[in-house]
TrEMBL record:
Residues 1-22 have a biased composition (Low complexity). Residues 43-106, 313-433 form the DUF2300 domain. This is DUF2300 domain-containing protein. The lineage of its organism: Bacteria, Pseudomonadati, Pseudomonadota, Gammaproteobacteria, Aeromonadales. Pfam families: DUF2300 (PF10062), SpoIID (PF08486). Residues 218-276 form the Sporulation stage II protein D amidase enhancer LytB N-terminal domain. Transmembrane segments: none annotated.
C-alpha cells in the first residue's frame, strides 16, 4: 500500500491521472463541476486518458489548487459512505473525502485506491494491490487508525442557539460582579438565574448578550460541528467513543431535522424539548468525535434520543454505551436504534430499506404464538428490534448487522415461510444453529405449516 499527503519524489507516479480519479467507466464530470474547474483547465485535463501517469506530487498539487474545494468535498462524502459496500464508514467516519479509482498495470495486475482531501483540505492519494474495493477492504482498519482527525475547514453551517430558554436569566455579570455590556461577549462571565443559582460561562466571541424588555438573554452563534460537540458534552460524554460517534450523528441529524432557517443559520433552542447545549467551548475530546463524524447524518426518517429509554426511532445512550463496550461500532449501534435509516449526508435521498409494515406487524403477532415452542431451543433469543424491508431482487435474506429482514412481501405461503426463515436467522444469530440452513428451514416449516 502506498499513500501520500505531501509531495513525494517525482519518480513516484499516480495512475490514473488527476483527471481520472475514478474507475475507467465512471465519469468525473460531476466532481469537476462541483470543484469549479475552469473550462480551459478542464479541456487540458481532458487530453489525459485513463492510462496517463502523473507524479504523485503533481496530483497533490493539483488537488490543493482546485477552486471550489468545499463543494467537491461535500459531494465526495457520498463516495466514502458507500465504499466497500458501506463497511468502510465504520472505521473512516466522515474524515475522508476522496474519489476511488481502479486500473491495471502493464503486467496486467490490478491496482486501485483513492485521491481527494481530508477535512482540513489536506490533499491525499493512496494506491494498493487490487481494485479500490479490495484496497479499502484490506486496509480499511489500518487507514482508520492512521488517518488524522483534523477540525473541518468547513465545519457546517451557522447554528444560532437561544441559551437557557427554560430558565429566566436575572443578570449576566463579569467576574468582578459588574453587569456585562450588551453585545458580543469575550472572556469568562457568570450567569445569575431567577432561582438565585449561578453558572460560570466562557465565550470566545460566539456568545451575544441581548438586553430588552424581556430581560437579559444569551444567544450563541456557532458552527454545526461545534454545536454537535457542545451538545455531546452537555447531554452525554465523548466516551466510550463508538457510542459517542453514534450520538454525534444523531445530534447532527436532529439539528438538521428540527432547526429553523434564520438567515444563513439554523435556529434552535437550548432546552430539554430540543437539545441542551454547553454554554462554553466544547472539550477537545468532544470536538474530535464531532470532527470524526463530520457531515454524516441519518436519512430516511425522524430521530431522537434519550439518556435511558430506547424504542422505535430513539437512541438510548445507556444502551449505546453497553453496545460499544460489547464491541459494536457506531454504525451498528445506529442500525439497532434506527433499523430503517441509512447513513448519508444532508440533502441526500432516504433509506435503502423500503419498509413492509404489514409484514412486520404479522411477524410481531406470530412470534407471540411461536414463543412457547422456541423458548426451549438452545440459542433462541428474540431480537429486541428489527425491520422488515422490501427485497429488490435475488433471494430473501437477513442482514444480521443491521437487524433487517429482506423479503418480497406477504402474499403467499412461500412469502410467510421466507419471513419466518429469515426471522429465525436473527433469533439464533448468537448460536451456531443460526447458520445451519437445514435447522432454520425445518423450524420455519414447523412454525408455518404445522
Amino acid at each position: 500500500m502506498r499513500s501520500a499527503m505531501a509531495a513525494p519524489s517525482a519518480a513516484q507516479s499516480a495512475t490514473p491521472s488527476a483527471a481520472n480519479m475514478a474507475n475507467p467507466d465512471e465519469s468525473m464530470d460531476g466532481v469537476a463541476d462541483a470543484a469549479g474547474i475552469p473550462p480551459s483547465e478542464a479541456a487540458r485535463l481532458a487530453t489525459h486518458n485513463a492510462a496517463t501517469e502523473v507524479a504523485v506530487y503533481q496530483l497533490l498539487t493539483a488537488l490543493q489548487q482546485l477552486p471550489a474545494q468545499q463543494q467537491a468535498r461535500e459531494v465526495l462524502l457520498d463516495v466514502s459512505l458507500a465504499a466497500d459496500e458501506r463497511r468502510a464508514t465504520a472505521v473512516l467516519g466522515g474524515r475522508l473525502r476522496a474519489k476511488t479509482w481502479s486500473w491495471h498495470r502493464e503486467d496486467g495486475a490490478l491496482v486501485g485506491g483513492f485521491a481527494g482531501w481530508l477535512l482540513d483540505g489536506s490533499p491525499l492519494w493512496m494506491a494498493g494491490p487490487g481494485t479500490s474495493r479490495v484496497v479499502l477492504a484490506n486496509y480499511g482498519k489500518v487507514l482508520g487508525q492512521w488517518l488524522p482527525t483534523p477540525w473541518p475547514r468547513e465545519p457546517g453551517q451557522c447554528v444560532e442557539v437561544a441559551l437557557f430558554t427554560r430558565y429566566p436569566l436575572q443578570e449576566v455579570v463579569d467576574l468582578q460582579g459588574q453587569p456585562a455590556a450588551a453585545g458580543q461577549l469575550n472572556g469568562r462571565f457568570r450567569v445569575r438565574f431567577g432561582t438565585a443559582n449561578l453558572l460560570d460561562i466562557a465565550s470566545q466571541g460566539e456568545l451575544f448578550l441581548l438586553r430588552d424588555t424581556r430581560g437579559p438573554r444569551l444567544i450563541a452563534r456557532i458552527s454545526e460541528e461545534e454545536y454537535v460537540a457542545r451538545v455531546l458534552d452537555r447531554e452525554a460524554s465523548p466516551a466510550p467513543s463508538e457510542a459517542a460517534k453514534a450520538l454525534a450523528v444523531t445530534i447532527r441529524t436532529y439539528l438538521q431535522q428540527n432547526g429553523q432557517p434564520k438567515g444563513e443559520c439554523l435556529s434552535i433552542t437550548d432546552s430539554t424539548q430540543h437539545q441542551r447545549v454547553a454554554p462554553r467551548p466544547a472539550t477537545v475530546a468532544a470536538r474530535e468525535i464531532a470532527a470524526w463524524s463530520a457531515g454524516v447524518i441519518l436519512v430516511g426518517g425522524p430521530v431522537t434520543y434519550h439518556a435511558e429509554q430506547g424504542g422505535a426511532g430513539k437512541l438510548s445512550w445507556r444502551e449505546a454505551v453497553a453496545q460499544a463496550n460489547a464491541g459494536l461500532t457506531f454504525d451498528l449501534i445506529l442500525a439497532r436504534a434506527f433499523p430503517y435509516l441509512e447513513l448519508g449526508r444532508g440533502g441526500q435521498p432516504g433509506a435503502q430499506c423500503q419498509p413492509l409494515a404489514e409484514a412486520e406487524r404479522w411477524l410481531l403477532a406470530q412470534r407471540r404464538s411461536w414463543r412457547p415452542r422456541l423458548d426451549g431451543e438452545v440459542g433462541y433469543e428474540e431480537p429486541a428490534g428489527f425491520a422488515v424491508c422490501l427485497l429488490g431482487s435475488g433471494r430473501p435474506y437477513a442482514d444480521k448487522q443491521r437487524q433487517r429482514i429482506y423479503v418480497r412481501g406477504l402474499y403467499s405461503q412461500q412469502d410467510r415461510l421466507d419471513l419466518a426463515h429469515e426471522y429465525l436467522h436473527l433469533a439464533f444469530q448468537s448460536h451456531p444453529n443460526g447458520d445451519d440452513e437445514a435447522y432454520i428451514e425445518r423450524w420455519a416449516r414447523h412454525l408455518i405449516l404445522e
